[in-house]
Structures are given as structure tokens and as C-alpha cells.
Amino acid sequence: MGSMTGGPAGAGGAAEASLLRVRLSAVLDTTLDPLILVRPVREGDRVVDFVIDDLNGTHARAGGDPRAQRMRLPERSPELFALYRRVLATGTTQEARRVRIEGHPEDPTSASGWADVRATAVAGDVVVSWRNVDADVLAERALREQAMQDPLTGLPNRRALVGLLAAACAAHVPFGVLFVDVDRFKELNDRYGHATGDAVLAATGERLRSALRGDDVVGRLAGDEFVVVAPRAGTREDVGALAARVVDAPAPTGAGAPAPSVSVGALLVDDPSADVDGVLRAADALMYAAKREGGGRVRVGGYPRGAGGTHDA
Asked: Which domains are seen in the chain, by residue range?
């Protein structure tokens, strides 16, 4: 790695400088992190890409880009390209975590991946150390998915639903919310046992999914309560029709107990002041109104108040 090493100047120190370069090169080639020296490719005064001028053995073993080939960073990783240009312009050291880099279009052996990167400006070039973090990104993604998923039904959990509702409220566009509750679930659970109760809840999740459209999202809020966020339900008629499909959807069999009905509070949210807690309270109140009428029904209303219409299952 001659380009990335240096030593004492002067004729008398030539041998010592050569030995130092050899030693430094050996150290750099065996260091755990890949190291590269990248040179800017310019068109006039504008940096349009980078080329690897030098690299250590770890970079080569890790499957990094080869020397002298244009990196094509503007296409493969705009974030990394911007980082290198900032470092050059400011003469500083900067870092970036979880940078996505696509495979090189001219190299069939090049693979896409994620990296943590540290870049330092050195005499018009950039010295870069990087670490592949593909496994870390996959683990973090799995943890995020687990944190947003109900383990029993596989549906989005309360945390995920709150995020979806918050985004829908912030968009200031009418949308629908269904608050769905399994009728007489406690009696069923007490009579047939918790394992059967869990099977009924999982089957209810499938029942709800089967009744929805492509961009509707159903999640399990808690216990036997489910919530549907319907971004394309822009009128009370839309919300009511969707709720009717949910109530009338065939209940899956095989849970070890009679398939229960569901009660639905169907809410049209068309208010720029809407918030998650207010929307859930309003939809919950409509659901209980439907349940008081015997269950297996829909009560439709608007946010923040107003209700009308029942649908018999």
C-alpha cells in the first residue's frame, strides 16, 4: 500500500523510509477494517466520481471494489458520494452509519450491501475505512419487525397501529377507521380455554385480512380488539361498506369453538384536528354502541362526533 504510507524525507533516510513503508504496509494489510485511498474524478472543477488509488489486503479480502475502476458512486450510493465530496471540500473527517451501496454495474461479482464508513481528507484524496454491517442491518430489521408485530396473529401490533394512525391524521386527508371487537370472547375463552381463545383470535385476524382491500391495514390493538386503517375510505358510505364486509366475512373454522361474530365501530375521520387518542376513543364508542344492540353489527359515525346507521350481520 505504497500510496497510503509515508516516511522520513531526505537522502540519508531513504533506507529507513523504505523500511517504515514496508512495516506500515504490513500493518495496514492485516488491520481488521478495510482501508482504501480514493481519488476524485473531476470534470473541470466538479467532482463527478471517485477511483480507488490504493487499498489494503482486508479490503480485497472483503470483496471491495478493485483499484483503478471508477466507483460509479453517484448511481450506487448517493449518500456515500456526498460524504466523500463533503470531506474533500472541508478537509475534515466524517462518518456515516448504515450506508447502502449497490453492486457495481460493470462487475458481475460485485454485491450490494451496507457499511459503516469513516472518511478523512488527505492531500486532495480521501482515506476511507469501512466495515460491512449487512448482518447488523438484518438483525436490526428483524428486531424492528418484532417490535411492531403481534406474535399471536402476525398482524401489526398497537405500536404499529398508533404510528399508522398518526401518519393518517397528519396527512389531513379523509380516512376510515374500523374498531373491531370479538363478541362474547370472554365467555368463549372461559369455556374452551386460552389455547382455543388464541386460535379464535388468530382466525379473526385472517378473517379481517380476507375482507380488506390492498391498501387497508388491520392490526391487533389488544386482547380481542382489532383496528383497521382504511386510507381510501373517504366517505361514510365507504367506511360503512368496508365494515359490512368485515362483519359478513366468513369466519374460519377449525379453531375448536363456534366461530364468533364481531361488532364494528366504523369511523370516518375528516377533521384536521384529529389525533390518535381521539380517533380511537370515538371508534371504540361506536363499537360498543354496536355491541349493545346485540353484536354482529356495525355502527357508523364521523369524527369528532355523530353516528348513524346499523348493519345486521
From this structure: 31-136 (3.30.450.20), 148-312 (3.30.70.270)
